[in-house]
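Issue: copy button drops trailing tokens. Both records pasted manually instead:
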Amino acid sequence: MGTVFSFDVRGGDPDAVRRTLAEAVAELHRVDEVFSTYREHSQISRLARGELAVEECDPEVAEVLALGAEAERRSEGWFSVRYEGRLDPTGIVKGWACERAARALAAAGTTGVSVNGGGDVQVFGVPGQQRPWRVGISDPLRPGALAAVVSAAGTDRLAVATSGTAERGAHIVDPRTTRSAVTDLVAVTVVSPGLTWADAWATAAFAMGSRQALAWLEDLPETEALLITAGNEVRATSGLASRLG
């Protein structure tokens, strides 16, 4: 998927955890082989060229495309599974795969799991007794600094996803123009229970720009967000403060 995944797993039977971790890593590699737009013979590449029908692909392809269609509907077209006119579900696959891997490890009898896929994080459980998971949000305008820290206190499942230009430059596309999104934002971080939606919402919100994105994110259930503009203006949804710490 063009990025690094890391795992932090606490508790559980060591043999069961090692076995499940190996299975989770193998599954991430398989997902990459199926969905990679850089692999000429991946199912997604062949589907995009019309060489395969969805029904001939692995079942996960139909699942991810359905999630992408739902994200497009709920974002009023600001999220898309197409890039420059070509099928490309990259904007939702990584969060979906990361969430699935974390869920599998949580189900293996662990007490706490954190899976980080390229800076987007899904956590389950707790890292220790009376200790919540805490996720730092990088400051896009001050390399090495944190803009905020999100706490998972009070919940057994939390995801944090960021879209922006600090790491990869202007890579987010405005689906209406099929060109790089022209926006006042440099980063959008979305906090929600699952990384599938957090990842998609962060991408859509960045393309919208700060004013429209903030109003839209405010209306999404179980969703909070932090938006940082190129002018170093920080905006947040009304409930984000309860998640900081």
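Record 2 (pasted manually too):
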Amino acid sequence: MTGHEAVARRLDALADFIATPVTTRRGLLARLRYLTRSDHARRAAREAGLTVTDRTLKARLDGRRSPSRRKLERVEAAYRTVRRQNVVRYLLARLNREGRGTRVEFHPLNQSQVDRPRQRAVQYRTLNVRRWDRIVEAWANDDAEALDDAWVTDVVVDLGSEWGQYEYVTNVGFAA
């Protein structure tokens, strides 16, 4: 996978989304409660594309109505969008660590499936990333192109002349 995809997966894991699937009653109720617990959350849910009347919402919360598959997908998309927007400040503070940054591990592609004469010796690398603002902003906006650009121009090129070997990786690891 590309490096920016691995970073997006890791940031999703750090965002700590609700684990129960939206297709179950418990998962749907948890997401609806998250999206309606305050006026700010309701506004953000509406901006994220969740357009449901208060009457329908109450019926869903009471269990009298269940949404269609398409509407479940909308609830999930709105939940993920709102959750990402809510954790941006927290993630930036944790990842930037007042300018000290976060250590990132690059796990290169597995070369075992490549023919022996064409295998490259690609080493496991670590790098301290101090500027996460563009990366987290692109992730929060679900903009893969901006995330790729920010990841490659702000981080991967700092690996030196071997940066092209780490554009595709098995994993990118970091903690916040």
